[in-house]
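Let us practice reading a record.
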Amino acid sequence: MPITTPYHIKIAPAVNRAIRMFTLKNQKLAIKLIEALSVNPRPPGAVKIEGLIGLYRQNIGHIHLIYKVEEQEVLVLLILTR
């Protein structure tokens, strides 16, 4: 069985600030979503943003996440709730 190397997650400072402003329920959901990207940054439901190399978006419930995948690194750029 091959060993998969998890991706390293980097979170933009604006994303950290935004998460702290979420409700506790949405904070937990956002953290769970970001942690899952370290194992699979292109899960079912993730949409590649056309015209931009390595940029994806994923929506889970009220959480909207935009991130970039480069080699073994995921850079979380933007997170919003509705």
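A brief commentary: The chain has one domain: 8-81.
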